[in-house]
Amino acid sequence: MNILVTGANGQLGNEIRIISKDTAHRFVFTDVSQVEGLETEFLDITDLSAVREMVSREKIDVIINCAAYTNVEAAETNEALAEKLNADAPKNLAASMAETGGLLVHISTDYVFGREPYNTPCREDQQGTPTGVYGLTKLHGEQHIMASGCRHVIIRTAWLYSEFGRNFCKTMLSLTATKPELNVVFDQCGTPTYAYDLACAIMTIVGRWSPDDASFPFGVYHYSNEGVCSWYDFTKMIAEYSGHASCDIRPCHSDEFPSPVTRPAYSVLDKTKIKKTFGIEIPYWTESLRRCIENMN
Predict the structure, then answer these.
(1) Do the Cβ atoms of 288 and 194 come closer than 8 Å?
(2) Cα gap 145→125, rounded to integer Å
(3) pTM passes above 0.85
(4) Could you report the per-residue pLDDT of 184-231, keeping only the tens digit for each?
(5) Does the CA dihedral 114-116-118-122 come out positive or negative?
(6) Active-site residue 232, yes or no?
(7) CA dihedral sign, ordered 282, 237, 161, 74
(8) Plot region of 33 (φ>0 → left; ψ -120 to 50 → alpha; else → beta)
(9) 137 pLDDT above the threshold of 90
(10) Catalytic entry in 134, 196, 223, 266
(11) pLDDT per residue over 2-46, tens digit each?
């Protein structure tokens, strides 16, 4: 198969690059930025004609959309740009796949939930109740894809981290190594997701698909690592696995860090559907965190 990856220079895109070397598929990695040492074709996914042209030229069978506007706080004052990247761009990708009969794998977020006071893991069929612009625009992207009629798999994920780019894990690695003490919120709960694990799950799903398979289970799925923790718990384990024992990490309330956006207090995702449908085994979050930190050392 010919597989187009958007946002290929981000966390998830880089993990797919690694996995792609062990597959027989042909990959076209695209982004709007260039990174030295990474072979990347320029593609502006907000330009429908450009998307159509590349899909046609490269004979694309599958698009894996890793691109998004992910700055949650900045989205509050840049709603038009967030809507363009998180909603309009996926609409373009969906249109191109609807025209060719290809498959769109789109990455969404736990931030489509949050306004309701959940205390049980969120299911795929649960109504989206975003608390901010980022979650709202990502929900709009999902809705555009569903309305397009294209063959699609939407995967909502959460708290993504990896060896690449900027993320919470790398930030806390730096802070726990340099600060004598650190306050981290304990009243927001979810599950960290190692981008490599998510990339493996995506490739399992893509490997199951063929254009002639009328029974393929298209739809919305959830994927994060197993388990539940707060940002405080996450930080404690980051410090433990990296040997940063001298930093005194203390729990605090989220209102001690004023923010323009209200983050979900509980956004744990129910992964029953993706495990049963595709036979995917999901590692516990601490196991994956340990592997990631070992890879960075």
Answers:
(1) yes
(2) 16
(3) yes
(4) 999 999 999 999 999 999 999 999 999 998 899 999 999 999 999 999
(5) negative
(6) no
(7) positive
(8) beta
(9) yes
(10) 134
(11) 999 999 999 999 999 999 999 999 999 999 988 888 899 999 999
